Amino acid sequence: MSTEKVEIFDTTLRDGEQVPGCKLNTAQKLKIASRLDEIGVNVIEAGFPVSSPGDFKSVTEISKLVKNATVCALTRAVKNDIEVAAEALKYAKYPRIHTGIGTSDTHIKYKFNSTREEIIERAIMAVSYAKSFVEDVEFYAEDAGRTDNEFLARVCTAAVKAGATVLNIPDTTGYCLPEEYGQKIKYLKENVKGIENARLSCHCHNDLGMATANAIAGVANGARQIECTINGIGERAGNTALEEVVMILRQHPHLNLMTDINPKLLFDTSQMVSREMGMYVQPNKAIVGANAFAHSSGIHQDGMIKNKQTYEIIDPADVGVTESAIILTARSGRAALAYKAKKMGYELTKLQLDTVYREFLNYADLRKEVVDNDIHVIMELSRKRNIA
Ligand code: KIV
Ligand code: ZN
Question: Where does the record place the Pyruvate carboxyltransferase domain (predicted)?
Fold first, then answer.
């Protein structure tokens, strides 16, 4: 079975930037867009141009700057939004308009006070109108996660007939279970007429912590684009994290799916986005968190010192992290202490290690972590006690 490509659609600058306190200026957006282009992102969602003059300017400048990726702009199913997006994208080498409308009964009733038939009409209008400006039009069925599959297939069929090249199936509220989301994608693959002319895309939110699992279930069932953000930032609990889906597909080659992303730049890109947005990365964040390759319990450290494969499924160098860390705490054992001490130039006999380890435990019990400087102090204390 040949390996197929999953396109990575990054929405850090649009869904990610919707996070309170994460506002970026145009220069910052250009810096991030340039990095996204460099790491191999296929589509960069640069913003929602009609939302503000600042966003319009950012999308325009990003369109001029980006060399390889498609540059995408979001709109509602509103003619003026589409005209403004087309204008902002006019310098893009590969422009895409991302337009759509809510399709769940909840959205139809409470947001639009409308009917299913009217929603289909508006979807057709939006896609056809966007198509009059650009060739590449992505249609989103907002709240597709809570839209019944039969109606969703009807809307998607209409969108493809109107010229949509990509069908985005957002789990807007992060509600679906992975199995359910995967089945939704499979159903659409089998029931949308003309689907051979369009790519299905997963856009999953993380309200129940399932954004990444849902996106993977989506591609395992036939979707070929994942919408995601660096560090998983985004509305409320965030979006699917780019670094997670890229590494999952790499670590599970039996899925026969790959991306164009250069994983060696993942850690640095995560740090850069965190700095620019002023949004810190939780230490236990998969792939890019400070503790993602840190080992602190004695049992794990002993295994790691014998062979890294005991507790690491990814070589940290693969994602741009220099090396895994052995963190000394009161839970560490003799093996970790001897390993750390040796790295710092202390060769200890078994007897010396016993003495130093006793000193170490007394010291470590009073601290969260024993750092390199503390090791020098512990060595000195042990030496003095041995002489006395
Ligand atoms: O979550 C969502 O439904 C969205 C759409 C606007 C694509 O972000
Ligand atoms: Zn979203």
Answer: 6-267
Give the pairing type, strands 257-258 and 43-47. Answer: unpaired
For the chain, helix, strand, coil in percent to 5 are 50, 15, 35
Ligand 1 atom with minimal separation from the 14 CA: 8
Phi, psi of 252 (to 5 degrees): -125, 70
Residue 140 CA, closest ligand 1 atom number: 7
Q: Is the CB of 11 under 6 A from ligand 1?
A: no
Beta-bridge partner residues of 199: 166
- Are 334 and 365 in contact by the 8 Å Cβ rule? The answer is no
Pairing of strands 257-258, 225-228: unpaired
Summarize pLDDT for 156-178 with one digit per residue, the tens. Answer: 999 999 999 999 999 999 999 99
Name the 3-class secondary structure at 335: helix
Angstrom CA distances, 379 to 302, 346, 376, stand at: 21, 9, 5
Give the ipTM of the model, two decimals please: 0.99
The answer to whether 189 and 156 have CB atoms below 8 angstroms apart is no
Q: What is the pTM of this model?
A: 0.95
Give the model confidence (pLDDT) of 109-127 as tens digits: 999 999 999 999 999 999 9
